[in-house]
Amino acid sequence: MRVSIDSSVCIGSGMCALTAPSVFDQDDEGYGTVRPGRADGAGDPLVKEAVRACPVQAVRLDED
User: Fold this and answer.
1) Which of 8, 13, 57, 60 has the most CB atoms within 10 Å of its CB?
2) Which whole-number Å values give the CA distances from 27 to 3, 8, 11, 51, 55, in the listed order?
């Protein structure tokens, strides 16, 4: 599993960071980011919920 955020789509709602804070964070401008070393989702069960919670579908999950 690989998680990413499409920065061209993200509006900075923060739902990813609120839903799965061990995987997602927000940058200084409020846009979602994947924490360093966490692009694999590290088995966090909340990653899929964060994908669903994003209001603009900027959070992507590619399952291997």
Assistant:
1) 13
2) 17, 14, 12, 18, 18
The position carrying tokens 């799965």 is: 20
The domain segmentation of the chain, as residue ranges, is 2-53
For 31-57, write each residue's pLDDT tens digit. 999 999 999 986 788 999 999 999 999
Block residue for tokens 């061990």 = 22
What is the CATH number assigned to the segment(s) 2-53?
3.30.70.20
What token pair was written down for 39? 């692009």
pTM of the prediction?
A: 0.90
